[in-house]
Each structure stands twice: as structure tokens, then as C-alpha cells.
Design a protein that fits this description.
heterodimer; A: mainly alpha; 2 domains; 6 helices; 54% helix
Chain lengths: 166, 190
């Protein structure tokens, strides 16, 4: 990997975050479409109390059905709709092919270790990344500190990445 | 209608709607739904340094997603300002009893203001919960390559094995946080 000063160092290659394939249409959909989708998602998770610290506590203590009901309906809905898109070879509204890059197994360590670390943070703040933004928007201003800390966390991961087992 | 909008939305309404998002974003622009990538995009935008993980074109790869995250923020504002449910979150009575025993006193908001608020940042515990918790969320989701949305919704919808493993990790960490870390932070343990 060539870094800014021109030297080469044996770092792990950055994982691809998106696929090649420029859109065939000259004008891709405006970014506002994604903004609207995010807005609907934000309203949805706020009104469904997915962003509530109390609901997360109720879930991890296995004392209420609400969060499990959300997962138990969201996951099958996601599986059915995404598998249908793939089965029928559907394209985007602009005619691009739909492709989902498979997640790399590696040694599998990152999914357990990273997952456990995230899970700890999830119970402390009561929020995963989407709810962090929704909580800030809904008036819990101190979540700005949690978001800033999350950025420091992600940056630290980027720094340590070559030395962490994956 | 207005009555319904102001109430908390039940799981059987919200769950299926949330589950539509991976397919929706694939149909709109072949985008893989996942919110935690935005933390990486923001780092790439603000402070990539010479770290290979952050050296890519964040506008091209993540511009749409950063706008999506901004949308979540605005959606949270709309739901909080005009659709707010005035009552405390209706958690199970047993959970409320457990949380009282833990030392939580303020049940009025979406988060317990006695441990998560600006005022709580005056204490070490507040920093551990808000700063430490945020750090673990950012570090853990980047390490795991996704969060509740990227793995829990998108990865699961695509039936990807690693995402199911990550979910197991999320829950293991969550249980450890609930039953070990919180009692420790509230001075109940050891």
C-alpha cells in the first residue's frame, strides 16, 4: 500500500467499501433520495423506541418481547425481500445490476472480537450507530459526545488494524 | 391517525418496515445498507492521516451514506419534536425493578438522564458510559465490519455467515455489559 510519503509498507489492504460499475444512466439519483430514506428510517427507529436505552436493557435482560419482536419481523422481511431481488435478478430503478459483495470470513476473529466490543458499547450508551444519530436529533444533545467518541474508536481501529487478528 | 402517530409504534408495524430497508437501498442505487460505515467515512473525510484504512474517495464510496445518516438525524428531530410520546418508555415491570435496584432513578426520557446527560459528564462514570461506550461502539463496529444494521439487517438478509457470527458477538458483549459492566459502574460490584 503506497502511503502519502511514497514509501511502501506491508499493511493489510483496505477492504473495498463499494463496487465498481459506474451507472449506465448519465445522471445517477440525487443524494436527496438517500436523505429521505434516512429520514424515514430515523422516524421509524425513534417511534419504535429502538433508540431507547431502556428497551435495550429490557432486551438484554430477556424481560420484554418488544425488541425481539422487531428483530423477529425485520430479519425475515429482509431475507425474503433481498432473496427475492437476487432470485429474480432485479435491477435498480436506473437499470444497474444489483450485486452484494460477500463478507470475508478470514479467521472469523474480527466478527466475534469486534462484535463483543461493540456489544459492550451498545449496552453502555444504549445505542448502536443509527440510534446515536437519531437520539442526537431527538434532543439528547450529549449523544454528540458519544458520536465523537465513536469516531475516535473507529480511527483507533484504523490505526491498529494491521496488528489486529482478523 | 394522529393518535397512532403519537403512540410508540408497535413491533409488528415497525419491524417489517425496518426490514424493508436493505432491499429498498439495493433497488434505489445498489447500496448496501449499514450505518456504521459512516464513522469510517467521517474519519476518511476529516483525518485520514497515512492510515491505509482511511485512504479512499469517501465522497464516491460513502457520500450517499453520510447523507442517509444526516437523514436519520433529521428523522430523529421530527419524531422528537412533533411525534413525541409524552409518557416514559413502557418497559416491563421487572426491568424497571431491576434498574431501580441498579440505581437508575430517572425513567422519563429515552435515556436515563441521571447517567446519560451533560451533567453526568461531570463524573468519571458519565465519561465511562458516554465516552467509553461511544468509543467501544466505534472501535467494535469497525473491527466487526458492521453494526446492527450492516450485519443484523443487510448481512442477515443476504444470509451471510459472518453476519450471524457477528450477531452472536453483539449479544455476548451486550449480556456482559448488562450483567457485569453496569453493576460495576453503579458501584454494586465487586
Amino acid at each position: 500500500m503506497t502511503v502519502r510519503d511514497g514509501t511502501r509498507r506491508p499493511t493489510r489492504p483496505a477492504e473495498p467499501v463499494a463496487r465498481e460499475a459506474p451507472p449506465p444512466s448519465p445522471r445517477p439519483l440525487g443524494l436527496w433520495v438517500y436523505g429521505m430514506a434516512g429520514l424515514l428510517f430515523g422516524i421509524l427507529i425513534t417511534k419504535a423506541e429502538v433508540i431507547s436505552w431502556f428497551r435495550i436493557q429490557e432486551m438484554f435482560r430477556f424481560q420484554g418481547f418488544h425488541m425481539f419482536g422487531i428483530f423477529a419481523t425485520a430479519m425475515p422481511t429482509g431475507i425474503l425481500t433481498v432473496q427475492a431481488l437476487k432470485r429474480w435478478g432485479m435491477r435498480t430503478v436506473r437499470g444497474e445490476p444489483i450485486s452484494i459483495p460477500p463478507k470475508q470470513w478470514g479467521r472469523g476473529i474480527r466478527y466475534i472480537a469486534g462484535g463483543v466490543i461493540f456489544g459492550l458499547g451498545w449496552t453502555l450508551t444504549g445505542a448502536c450507530p443509527g440510534p446515536l444519530f437519531a437520539l442526537l436529533g431527538s434532543g439528547v444533545g450529549v449523544m454528540a459526545v458519544a458520536i465523537a467518541s465513536a469516531l475516535v474508536g473507529t480511527w483507533t481501529y484504523g490505526l491498529l488494524r494491521p496488528r489486529l487478528p482478523h | 391517525m394522529r393518535e397512532f402517530l403519537l403512540q410508540p409504534w408497535p413491533w409488528y408495524v415497525a419491524g417489517p418496515l425496518i426490514g424493508l430497508f436493505p432491499a429498498l437501498l439495493l433497488l434505489v442505487g445498489n447500496k448496501l445498507f449499514g450505518v456504521s460505515s459512516n464513522l469510517r467515512h467521517a474519519c476518511a473525510a476529516v483525518c485520514p492521516g497515512s492510515i491505509a484504512y482511511f485512504r479512499y474517495d469517501f465522497r464516491r464510496e460513502g457520500g450517499w451514506n453520510l447523507v442517509f445518516a444526516l437523514g436519520i438525524l433529521v428523522g430523529g428531530f421530527i419524531a422528537g419534536a412533533w411525534l413525541r410520546n409524552p409518557d416514559p418508555v413502557a418497559i416491563a415491570a421487572r426491568t424497571k425493578a431491576d434498574l431501580l435496584a441498579l440505581g437508575i432513578r430517572d425513567f422519563s426520557g429515552l435515556v436515563p438522564a441521571d447517567v446519560i446527560s451533560w451533567a453526568s459528564l461531570l463524573s468519571a462514570r458519565g465519561w465511562a458510559v458516554i465516552g467509553g461506550g461511544g468509543f467501544l461502539v466505534g472501535f467494535g463496529t469497525a473491527y466487526a465490519g458492521g453494526c446492527t444494521s450492516g450485519h443484523g439487517l443487510s448481512g442477515v438478509a443476504d444470509l451471510q455467515g459472518p453476519s450471524f457470527l457477528a450477531l452472536l458477538g453483539f449479544f455476548t458483549g451486550g449480556l456482559a455489559g448488562t450483567f457485569l459492566l453496569w453493576p460495576l459502574l453503579m458501584g454494586l460490584w465487586p
